[in-house]
Amino acid sequence: MIALLPDWAGPVAHYMAHQGVKQTLRIAVFAVVGSALVGILLGTLMTIRFPPLRALLRLYVEIWRGLPIVVTIFIVFYALPSAPLIHHRFAAFTGAAVGLTLWGSAQVAEATRGAVQSIPREQHEAASALGFGWVGRHVSVILPQALRRLLPPFVGLLANVIQNTTIASLIGVTEVLSTGQRSTERLAYSTGDSHALAIYAAVAAAFFAISFPLTRLAIFLEKRLV
Amino acid sequence: MAVLASFDWHFIWAHHSEFLAGLRRTFKVAAIGIAGAFLIGVVLGAIRAHRIPVLSQLAAVYVEVIRNTPILVQIFLFYYGLPEFPGHPIRLQPFTVAWLSVMVWGGAFNTENFRAGFEAVPARYREAGLALGFSRLGTFANVTFPIGARIALPSSINTYISVLKNTSLLTAIGYAELTNTAYSLESVTFRSTEVYATLGVMYLVVVWTLSALIRLVESRLALPEER
Which of A134, B62, B73, B157 is least surrounded by CB atoms within 10 angstroms? Predict the structure, then answer.
């Protein structure tokens, strides 16, 4: 297998796997965990009938779902550090991970709201009758049932988050697309041939290998759980 | 509002023509991309729904490849990859890559939208069309398309909004659409708060206006039984 590859491919593959793939996975894990935690919390709060809170959460969801992700990441990375009260420069990694989390949490919040509202009233009433308060009722009774319905869209989101980590390359995070780009530039400089087609096709193939099973799984879960 | 005290409103006004020029390019690319995505979606969606051999499988491969790879990688393949095509280098202008990449992406998602729409048209409607003497193409144009396209309307419109938002990624190849315009402006003026606040507000105004318009169109075009 290795013998079939041309000479230039070895060091490039090594660099992309050890630097690029590692950074891609780090951003993806941060964004997925962050989106799940923030999104489930906000989505559950969205079901409370208190108009000011509802309006505020609706605004959060509509802003981060409405903006292109690259714009969100640019705002977090370039504009937020100069905002009053913050005055703190983020690492590019943090900027990308936070930007993706804002977008992902808005998606999860909207899905959670729908899932929580789809749980029949009787479940709320029965839990209240057993003496559960609002928090206990949601944590012990409602959310465990809602999470089952949340699973298919969440697997779909996982595939989307992994694909969207490539946007981090635009602010200089050395994730897999960025390491690929640097490799093409180095090859063009040292050998005169960038091998851009082969390198980007390999990047696309790697994402396909991860994303395709996930989107299939999401469809499968949707059919099974409904 | 000490937070707003240092915000330079005059700066935004002084550069409004640059922002609007960027927005115009975003609209131009999005319009071509959306029109193309509509055509691809109708044709390939019909091929998928009618299970036309070979073409249907090819369309399925196209849909899965596009949906399961990042659009930024697709843009890079068009812009940096095609000129390296062995024996037959293909060099495209940034503008060509711009509309082509968002069109190919939108077309794949739209193929799925229209396939689902056409498949949701009851078979008895098509049988009725054929029984009335319409050809297969005539049945599609007069029965399946008008009903199926309306079933597919909400999901296809979401795809068009995503196409518009995806044009922001063209900043990666230096095409001067809205995001790239803002990025260039910030790198010469260093007014990051003003520039990116304006950029965010402009996208939200466009996306929210489109979503509102769409709900209006949707309720007018929805099938009678769904009203």
Answer: A134
Q: Per CATH, the architecture of B2-226 is what?
A: Orthogonal Bundle (1.10)
Burial A116-137 (b: 16+ CB within 10 A, else e): beebeeeebeebeeeebeeeeb
Residue B111: how many other CB atoms lie within 10 Å: 28
- Report CA dihedral (B167, B170, B175, B180) to the nearest 10 degrees: 80
Stated pTM of the model: 0.92
Structure tokens at B151: 């079933």
Of B77, B86, B193, the CB nearest to A79: B193
- d(Cα B116, Cα B155) in Å, to the nearest integer? 10
Give the total number of structural domains in chain A: 1
Strands (E), chain B: none
- Quote the ipTM score: 0.91
B88: pLDDT strictly greater than 60: yes
Cβ contact A20:A182 at 8 Å: no
Question: CATH code at A162?
Answer: 1.10.3720.10
Taking each helix axis as running N to C, give the angle between helix B192-221 and helix B178-189, from 0 to 180 degrees, rounded to the nearest 10: 170
* Distance from the B216 Cα atom to the nearest Cα atom in chain A, whole angstroms: 18
User: What confidence tens digit (pLDDT) does each residue in A133-153 have?
Assistant: 999 999 999 999 999 889 999
Cα separation, B110 vs B64, whole angstroms: 12
Host domain of residue A46: 22-174
Query: Touching check for B217 and chain A: CB below 8 Å?
Result: no
